[in-house]
């Protein structure tokens, strides 16, 4: 196969994240809701019976299933199931920046509007311990506390050091990740939820 044939064989493909087929994909929804005439953001507290991250604060969302048309439809479906509302009650959906976590997941966040009253929501108790809202204006006034988490490279036993320059003294580049913390009343919002929240707030503030 000559060079022209080789390049023709990959012509027109849509690039994706290398190795993404080995990642789990999740869709997250940042819900805006009116409370007493003011725009709030709604949060969930995960059920204490959940296997993963019980009691933590999060946005509605979950795994992108094969039956989902795309990540956006997954975010709408998960929000509908978790909050007990019709999918038609969700509108104005816009994508935020997606992120690849160090833990083998790709997160596709979206923001949009819940056209419902908080008291009309019927959270799924199997997944949601409780819901609460915070005025968006209050969150915009806050700067998150930032803390570094350091990831260290630890090659497995039998790693072929002799095959690389520097051998066992090779300078593997460890990386740091900033963990964000928001505090609202007695609630602590941190982790990926806080990172997505910070991104959303910065995005809408930059576009005023």
UniProtKB/TrEMBL annotation:
KW Manganese (keyword) present: yes
Keyword line: Hydrolase, Magnesium, Manganese, Metal-binding
Name of this protein: Coenzyme A pyrophosphatase
Gene Ontology molecular function terms on file: coenzyme A diphosphatase activity; metal ion binding
Keyword hit for Magnesium: yes
Record-annotated Nudix hydrolase domain positions: 23-159
Top-level lineage group: Bacteria
UniProt cofactor(s): Mg(2+); Mn(2+)
CDD domains given in the database record: NUDIX_CoAse_Nudt7
């Amino acid at each position: 196969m000559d060079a022209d044939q080789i390049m023709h064989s990959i012509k027109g493909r849509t690039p994706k994240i290398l190795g993404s087929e080995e990642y789990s994909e999740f869709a997250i929804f940042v819900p805006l809701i009116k409370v007493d005439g003011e725009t709030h953001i709604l949060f969930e507290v995960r059920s204490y019976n959940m296997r993963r991250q019980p009691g933590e604060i999060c946005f509605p969302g979950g795994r992108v299933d094969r039956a989902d048309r795309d990540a956006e439809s997954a975010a709408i479906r998960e929000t509908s199931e978790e909050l007990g509302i019709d999918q038609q009650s969700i509108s104005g959906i816009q994508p935020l920046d997606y992120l690849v976590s160090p833990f083998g997941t790709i997160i596709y966040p979206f923001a949009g509007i819940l056209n419902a009253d908080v008291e009309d929501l019927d959270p799924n108790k199997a997944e949601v311990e409780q819901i609460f809202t915070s005025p968006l204006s209050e969150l915009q006034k806050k700067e998150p506390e930032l803390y570094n988490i350091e990831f260290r490279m630890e090659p497995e036993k039998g790693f072929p050091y002799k095959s690389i320059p520097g051998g066992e003294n090779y300078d593997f580049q460890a990386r740091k990740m900033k963990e964000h913390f928001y505090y609202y009343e007695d609630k602590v919002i941190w982790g990926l939820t806080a990172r997505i929240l910070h991104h959303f707030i910065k995005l809408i503030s930059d576009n005023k």
